[in-house]
Amino acid sequence: MSKSAYMHEPESSEAFTPLQAGGRVLDCAPTRMGALVPTLPKQPLGDLIEQYKDQGYLWLKGFFDPEMVLAFRGRVLSHLGSAGLIAAGTDPRIGICSPQVGGKADIDRRLMEIVRSAAFESFCTQPELVAFMDAFLGGLSYIHKRKIMRYTRPGSSTFTPAHYDLVYLRGGTHRIVTAWIPIGDIPRRMGGLVYLEGSHAIGVKMEQEFAERAAELSPQERINAFNKHMTEGGWVSKDLPDMAQRFDSRWLVADFEAGDLMLHSPYMIHASTDNQDVENRIRLSTDLRYQDVQSEIDARWSNHWSLDDML
To answer: Where does the secretion signal sit in this chain (predicted)?
Structure first.
């Protein structure tokens, strides 16, 4: 693939703001932190597939109409704002968090309403996205019904520890592609996804080792992230700085914008960082899983996502 199809960011440590995950500060040294490589989506499909296989991810810049994404952000945060999440008198599209957030149970109930709504389904099945995934997977694509939407308040201790997605999808094909969509701008200090460079190969090795250790487990135990061969919750680690050191790798970071689309391998190790936004904005994103429709589908993902579904 021509290097002109990539839009490179500076690699010096000066380009990176200190980030933290669960209170642990990520090392900004060039050997431990780097930049994700953004790609223009209108490249030949074969080149995009080759880059995906090589990197373990694709950051497709401007895939969606940003105004459409921002309008949907406003719609979601208006609904969550009715439970006191958004600062009074502010534009929900901006997503300024209220200094006196209402009850979490009320906000979460409204979040579950959104993920079951026709508006969310429409957002996730936009014709251009469906057509792209059909082509990318080489046939009719299937989107799992279990679609996750996450909001993270600034200053919250909530973050996603390091993991790879196949841990939660062992009941079906391994040919899964995750689509992560930032619903609004997510500069790195807002706690977007970070990826461990080259870790799609590490994930394959981990999964092979797990399969060997899990040979004596029942079929149900083998597909369950919560078993004796995995850490609690299926995470690889909650210590992101230690992981970069342990695997002698770098966390790749980015300033995501409304309209961007991230695709990553089911073996790619990734995490999120803390929302440290100085403008007090809420981070909002969604996680979708695609596969070809002819392959085996993990039945556990055939229901709407809920906060207590233990997956």
So the answer is: none
The percent of the chain in helix, strand and coil, each rounded to the nearest 5, is 35, 20, 50
**Cβ count near 307 (within 10 Å):** 11
Per DSSP, helices labelled H in 116-267 are: 118-124, 127-137, 199-213, 219-222, 240-246
Structural domain boundaries in the chain: 18-67+142-294
- Chosen CATH of 18-67+142-294 out of 3.40.50.1820, 2.60.120.620, 3.30.930.10, 3.30.460.10: 2.60.120.620
Exposure letters 16-27 (e unless 16+ CB within 10 A, then b): beebbbeebebb
Which positions ≥6 away from 171 have C-beta within 8 Å? 223, 296, 298, 299, 300, 301
**What pLDDT, in 10s, does the model give residues 158-187?**
899 999 999 999 999 999 999 999 999 999
Only one residue has tokens 């990176």, namely: 16
Tell me the β-bridge partners of 283: 152
pTM beyond 0.90: the answer is yes
Exposed e or buried b per residue across 194-233, where buried means at least 16 C-beta atoms within 10 angstroms of its C-beta = bbbbbbbebbbebbeebeeebeeeeeeebbbbeeeebeee
Residue 116: count of CB within 10 angstroms of its CB? 13
Alpha helices by DSSP H, listed for 8-65, are: 45-55
Displacement of CA 33 from its chain's centroid (Å)? 18
